[in-house]
């Protein structure tokens, strides 16, 4: 009996060790033949390549590690933009799919079916090579609201130039902390006295008043820098000042958010539909208003169904942002697993670092999700 | 006549409200249609923004007037219930109607009215619409990649025959139904592999292979005369004997010439491409990822800790990384792990990589099904004296797999949608071919047509698949 239990495990381990041993042996032989040694020392060497778009200061004289950081930050940037837009579009479309209005429901359904059945890569190409190429040249662009310029070279938006930015940020942090306290207080009050506090209005008030105070008392202020057109040569124009978002970023963020929004919409729909009719009827029968039913009965239960798959979609979006390599947006894969790999030829080290980065990202999020799931799971008596 | 209260339409003056409302509504739709189809603005005498919003206001008033509950007119009630429950809904409905009307003319003109399909060069495209000539000229490339024109019948023939062989399940009689699983899981993939290797790739027919076929044919013919009692042993022993006899005793010299015949031109995988490559890659990945995923999911629920943790590690690793890095790994890192003289074809490496990647997702889906089964099923199977494999094959898996049909279908859809990523290793399926064609100097500036064409193709493929999986789910749904 014991033998029967040990044998399969022993065989598995043996197989794994054999496969890995075979691979390592070959890798050693191959690297010896090519005259490379394994190691991560190259990370501190000078990279001597340039990146088009980076959030931190970077040029060829910085190290490969810095290039890695540039790529990572660009990946995070496009993921965050994508997640925000995907959530907004997804929630709106998901609610639209539940609408009793036939036209709205159909429109949302057509959107979902259409965008989720077309490969993401094709969508990215479509936006980048077909749709954004139809935009005007910088010198011919019409300003939108007088300050935004959407051109073939990207979107140029005004930049905020801050004085005493730190005080403003502290005020926002303070507002958030006080909102959390108000919420805790409100819940306690409701549990002990059964009275409801208008948490929403208090929160909005706090979010407005505290930053306002930082302007009046703290002395923080800002000015807006509007992009201005500038001639580089006879036919080449660009904008100066403000923030320029490259077309690669726009195409990628657009495609990612439109694609992922369809999945989030389905999650939202499933979540709200998953709440039994009896719950709503029971809530209505004890005299709750429709708004209260939504806020106190439907949403807390629906969120429990919605949040786990939605987080999964966020994770997918982050991983899909690696398709950036196809349109040359300098993300982690393009900068590090592309350019840096070509220059150094260290395939094993660089591919393993790239994979480990994504892996640790998703494992962190899934550990957090497991914790969250346990926290919100229905505690049955 | 009753007093008419404009603000609250009711049943008493039904006709008045109805006619005024319908008139106003159609007036607004008429105005927008005129504006969009014929570019005539009826209200151009009004200032800009009022002229712009007037149809909306008219439409809203019209819809407000016909919002009469329980009017007794069936169609009116239907409209009210579906698109006109309150002012906000009416507003949204109107916006959608107007947007559709507004966007129809440009879309129609781009797709059909101003589009060109005649001619065979860029100059034929004179209209402002799409240039379908581009798709027409490049159609072969989009379908077959760089595959030689004269040899494309091989791909067609293979796909058609495989399609027929794949549809056997629909025509099978009750007697053969029980062999279907075996057929689809083992025999069909092998046939497909042979087709791809010998037919599409045009691999040399080894002489061993021709001996084998002769041995098989002869032994099958002889097999009819053998009593069924010995058939089992017969089919193991006789073919091998004939094979060895053929190879080493008889016609050695004669058959070696026959075996060397190269019937078809060798086409290397680098030249494959287009939609046919999409199909080939998705097909083999589908076939391989399912069994791997099944074993991983069983491994994850195994009682043996080592197998369990190895499975968990495998699943979480593949699920945690993006496919593009996996393909990078297969193209630049994997060759380092192999002996120098061992070369694995690019296409094979890609298929292995995608299969392993998708297998992790399949494993998680199947695990969901396994967990959803009540413990009683396991206990019942065990109490009948079934072992691990017997229990899973006859009791657990049939039920669990039935539960997860939608999930597996979704994974397969994701797989099909992921195939364009193989551009990373330099294989050009349809999206890659589009990007290549787009940069051809003779055909610059038709990116939009190409992407729209590919989108429509992918949409048709994926939408059919998802509808089919829905039907399958309905078919196998059992009440529990």
Write the CATH fold name of the domain at 64-158 and 226-374 in chain A: MetI-like fold
Share of helical residues of chain B: over 70%
Uncertain runs of chain B are none
Instruction: Output the number of helix runs of chain B.
Output: 21
Strand content of chain B: under 5%
Rg of chain A, Cα atoms, Å:
27 Å
Count of distinct structural domains of chain B: 3
Salient structural properties:
heterodimer, A: 381 residues, alpha+beta, MetI-like fold, four-stranded antiparallel beta sheet, two-stranded antiparallel ribbon, B: 480 residues, mainly alpha, 3 domains
Question: If you had to describe this structure to a student in words, what would you say it looks like?
Answer:
Chain A is built from eleven helices and eight strands. Chain A has 381 residues and is α+β, with helices and mostly antiparallel strands. Chain A has a domain at 64-158 and 226-374: MetI-like fold. In chain A, the strands form three sheets. Chain A has a four-stranded antiparallel sheet. In chain A, a hairpin with a 2-residue loop joins strand 2 (148-151) and strand 3 (154-157). In chain A, helix 2 packs antiparallel against helix 3. Chain A starts with a helix and ends in a 5-residue tail after the last helix. By secondary structure, chain B is an all-alpha fold. Chain B folds into three domains: 14-113; 205-261, no CATH class; 269-475, MetI-like fold, CATH 1.10.3720. In chain B, 71% of the residues lie in helices and 0% in strands. Chain B has 21 helices and one strand. Chain B has helices spanning 14-38, 48-65, 74-83, 87-113, 132-144, 152-166, 168-171, 174-177, 180-200, 207-223, 231-248, 252-260, 274-300, 305-320, 323-333, 346-372, 375-383, 388-403, 405-418, 430-438, 447-475; one strand at residues 428-429. In chain B, helix 1 packs antiparallel against helix 2 (48-65) and helix 10 packs antiparallel against helix 11. At the A-B interface, helix 1, helix 3, helix 4, helix 10 and helix 11 of A face helix 3, helix 4, helix 14, helix 15 and helix 19 of B.
């Amino acid at each position: 009996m014991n033998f029967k239990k040990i044998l399969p495990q022993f065989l598995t381990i043996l197989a794994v060790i054999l496969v890995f041993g075979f691979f390592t042996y070959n890798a050693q032989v191959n690297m010896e033949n090519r005259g490379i040694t394994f190691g991560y020392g190259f990370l501190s060497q000078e990279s001597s390549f340039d990146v088009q778009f980076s959030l931190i200061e970077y040029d060829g004289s910085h190290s490969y590690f810095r290039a890695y950081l540039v790529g990572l930050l660009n990946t995070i940037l496009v993921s965050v933009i994508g997640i925000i837009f995907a959530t907004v579009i997804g929630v709106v479309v998901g609610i639209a799919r539940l609408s009793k209005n036939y036209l709205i429901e159909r429109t949302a359904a057509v959107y979902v079916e259409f965008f989720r059945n077309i490969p993401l890569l094709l969508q990215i190409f479509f936006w980048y090579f077909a749709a954004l190429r139809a935009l005007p040249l910088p010198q011919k662009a019409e300003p939108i609201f007088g300050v935004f310029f959407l051109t073939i070279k990207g979107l140029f938006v005004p930049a905020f130039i801050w004085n005493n930015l730190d005080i403003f940020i502290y005020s926002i942090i303070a507002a958030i902390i006080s909102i959390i306290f108000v919420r805790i207080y409100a819940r306690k009050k409701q549990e002990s006295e059964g009275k409801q506090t208008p948490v929403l209005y208090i929160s909005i008030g706090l979010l407005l008043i505290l930053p306002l105070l930082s302007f009046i008392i703290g002395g923080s202020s800002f000015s807006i820098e509007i992009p201005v057109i500038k001639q580089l040569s006879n036919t080449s124009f660009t904008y100066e000042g403000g923030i320029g978002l490259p077309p690669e970023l726009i195409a990628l963020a657009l495609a990612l958010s439109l694609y992922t929004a369809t999945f989030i919409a389905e999650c939202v729909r499933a979540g709200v539909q998953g709440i039994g009719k009896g719950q709503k009827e029971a809530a209505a029968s004890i005299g709750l208003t429709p708004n209260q039913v939504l806020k106190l009965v439907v949403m807390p239960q629906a969120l429990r169904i919605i949040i786990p798959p939605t987080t999964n979609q966020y994770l997918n979006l982050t991983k899909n942002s690696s398709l950036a390599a196809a349109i040359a947006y300098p993300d982690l894969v393009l900068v590090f697993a592309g350019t840096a790999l070509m220059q150094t030829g260290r395939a094993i080290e660089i591919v393993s670092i790239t994979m480990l980065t994504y892996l640790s990202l998703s494992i962190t999020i899934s550990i957090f999700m497991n914790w969250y799931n346990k926290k919100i799971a229905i505690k049955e008596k | 006549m009753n007093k008419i209260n404009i603000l609250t339409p009711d049943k008493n003056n039904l006709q008045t409200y109805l006619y005024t409302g319908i008139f106003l509504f159609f007036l607004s739709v008429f105005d927008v249609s005129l504006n969009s189809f014929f570019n005539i603005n009826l209200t151009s005498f009004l200032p800009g923004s009022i002229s712009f919003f007037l149809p909306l206001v008219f439409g809203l008033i019209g819809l407000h007037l016909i919002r009469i509950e329980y009017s007794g007119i069936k169609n009116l009630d239907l409209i009210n219930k579906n698109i006109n429950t309150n002012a906000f809904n009416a507003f949204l409905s109107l916006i959608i109607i107007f947007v559709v009307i507004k966007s129809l003319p440009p879309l129609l003109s781009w797709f059909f009215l101003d589009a060109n399909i005649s001619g065979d060069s860029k100059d034929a495209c004179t209209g402002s619409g799409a240039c379908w000539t581009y798709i027409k000229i490049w159609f072969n490339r989009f379908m077959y990649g760089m595959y030689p024109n004269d040899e494309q019948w091989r791909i067609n023939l293979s796909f058609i025959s495989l399609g027929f062989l794949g549809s056997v399940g629909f025509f099978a009689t009750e007697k053969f139904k029980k062999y279907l699983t075996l057929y689809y899981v083992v025999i069909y993939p092998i046939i497909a592999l042979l087709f791809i290797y010998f037919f599409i790739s045009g691999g040399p027919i080894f002489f061993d292979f021709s001996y084998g076929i002769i041995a098989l044919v002869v032994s099958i013919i002889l097999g009819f005369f053998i009593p069924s009692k010995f058939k089992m042993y017969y089919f193991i022993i006789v073919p091998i004997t004939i094979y060895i006899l053929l190879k080493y005793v008889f016609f050695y010299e004669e058959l070696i010439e026959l075996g060397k015949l190269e019937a078809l031109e060798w086409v290397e995988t680098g030249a494959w491409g287009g939609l046919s490559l999409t199909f080939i890659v998705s097909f083999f990945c589908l076939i391989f990822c399912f069994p791997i995923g099944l074993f991983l999911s069983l491994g994850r629920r195994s009682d043996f800790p080592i197998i369990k943790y190895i499975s968990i590690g495998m699943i979480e690793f593949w699920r945690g990384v993006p496919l593009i890095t996996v393909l990078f790994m297969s193209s630049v890192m994997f060759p380092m792990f192999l002996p120098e003289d061992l070369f694995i074809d690019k296409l094979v490496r890609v298929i292995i990589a995608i299969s392993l990647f998708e297998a992790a997702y399949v494993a998680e889906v199947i695990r969901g099904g396994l967990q959803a089964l009540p413990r009683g099923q396991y206990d019942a199977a065990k109490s009948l004296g079934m072992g691990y494999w017997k229990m899973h094959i006859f009791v657990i898996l049939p039920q669990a797999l039935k539960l997860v049909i939608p999930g597996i279908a979704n994974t397969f859809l994701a797989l099909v949608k992921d195939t364009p990523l193989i551009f990373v290793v330099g294989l050009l399926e349809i999206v890659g071919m589009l990007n290549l064609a787009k940069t051809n100097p003779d055909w610059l500036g038709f990116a939009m047509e190409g992407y729209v064409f590919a989108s429509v193709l992918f949409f048709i493929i994926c939408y059919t698949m998802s509808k089919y999986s829905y039907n399958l789910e309905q078919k196998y749904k059992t009440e529990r």
